[in-house]
Design brief:
Blueprint lengths: L2 E10 L4 E3 H9 L6 H7 L3 E3 L8 H16 L8 E5 L10 H9 L6 E5 L5 H15 L5 E8 L10 H4 L5 E10 L4 E9 L7 E2 L5 H6 L8 E2 L8 H13 L8 E6 L4 H11 L10 H4 L6 H11 L8 E8 L3 E8 L1
Length: 328
């Protein structure tokens, strides 16, 4: 039986580091105290693009080159490329087309962009895995998640401006006969908050035809905790149908959007601190790549090793929840 494993993982982030003190001073001048907000979100530092030469596409290209080098592979070894982003540098051609060129991929390589907002990279991994299982001619896939979040952050709102960071992650999926790799995934979609987080704020048609504002993301207040009850059910279902207990999972690589959600999930399932991989204090919130930055940290710190069970969970705007189970 064909299995799909994570062969290698790589990342890229800009050089500039901005700590909480900058945002606390910045919003203090606007009459806001954001120190409790930053503590709630679990932020300390984040990487920020601060030059004209970098963007979401260039970050994705650098992360891809990093993972190919780590895997001792070239672009010609890749059968499929999926570029996940919610801040594409171009809508056509696809960002994946530029990436194809930069890594020197072959003529038969499948290329596409994919957008499921912050859930995007996880959806891309799950969908690419299913496709690889079905297509005997696709044995490797390069999945890239890259968001230039600070480009569209609203400087008047701390939930985006003080919370976001810029980074990219790339993984190589590979077919194997080993009893390892992808196990299962589960989704929960509820479109109840579909109008709360929007970019462009009034839609693309009005932005272009009517010159409506499209500089910053619109983020209206909503109760984010509504996502937690279905999250608990999803994780329980995923574990139950694969005959696993919470203690069997070596690492939980969860959305890094807010530390408070991670702590609530930890408390709900009585997880040990060592089972939780948290990098949001160093990277800020990086959108589509965030659970995989946690995976990268877990692997490189030695907390995740081959044969370990890893459970992923994330949330996308609207909202869509995704949870995925791998044997690394």
């Amino acid at each position: 039986m064909k299995h799909i494993k994570i062969k290698e993982i790589g990342i890229y982030h800009p050089k500039k580091v901005v700590d909480n003190a900058y945002y606390e001073d910045y919003f203090k001048e606007k009459g806001k105290d954001v120190s409790n907000f930053l503590k709630h979100m679990g932020r300390k530092k984040r990487y920020i693009i601060d030059n004209e030469d970098e963007n979401g596409l260039t970050m994705g290209i650098q992360a891809s080159k990093d993972v190919l080098q780590r895997a001792n592979m070239s672009g010609k070894d890749i059968d499929m490329i999926v570029f996940s982003t919610q801040v594409p540098e171009t809508t056509f051609p696809s960002n994946a087309m530029f990436l194809h060129h930069e890594i020197g991929a072959g003529y038969e390589t499948i290329v596409m962009d994919q957008n499921a907002n912050c859930a995007g990279m996880m959806v891309a991994v799950e969908q690419a895995t299913r496709y690889m299982m079905a297509n005997p001619h696709v044995n490797t896939a390069l999945i890239v998640g890259s968001d230039y979040n600070t480009l569209i952050s609203n400087p008047d709102e701390e939930v985006t401006y003080a919370n976001y960071g810029d980074a990219a992650c790339a993984i190589i999926l590979e077919t194997t006969d080993e009893e390892t790799g992808f196990i299962d995934a589960i989704y929960h979609t509820d479109s109840v908050t579909r109008d709360k987080i929007m970019y462009p704020e009034q839609g693309l048609t009005k932005a272009i035809r009517d010159n409506a504002d499209m500089k910053n993301i619109k983020w209206l207040p909503f109760k984010g905790k509504i996502a937690l009850p279905p999250t608990y059910k999803m994780i329980e279902t995923l574990l139950d149908r694969n005959q696993l207990k919470t203690s069997d999972i070596k690492a939980y690589c969860l959305s890094q959007f807010t530390l408070s959600n991670i702590l609530k999930i930890q408390e709900e399932f009585q997880l040990d601190d060592q089972q939780i991989i948290y990098v949001g204090d160093r990277f800020g919130y990086t959108g589509t790549s965030s659970p995989f930055l946690a995976l990268y940290e877990g692997i490189n710190s030695g907390r995740i090793n081959r044969g370990d069970y890893v459970l992923f969970w994330t949330i996308g705007a609207g909202f869509q929840l995704v949870s995925m189970l791998f044997k690394y």
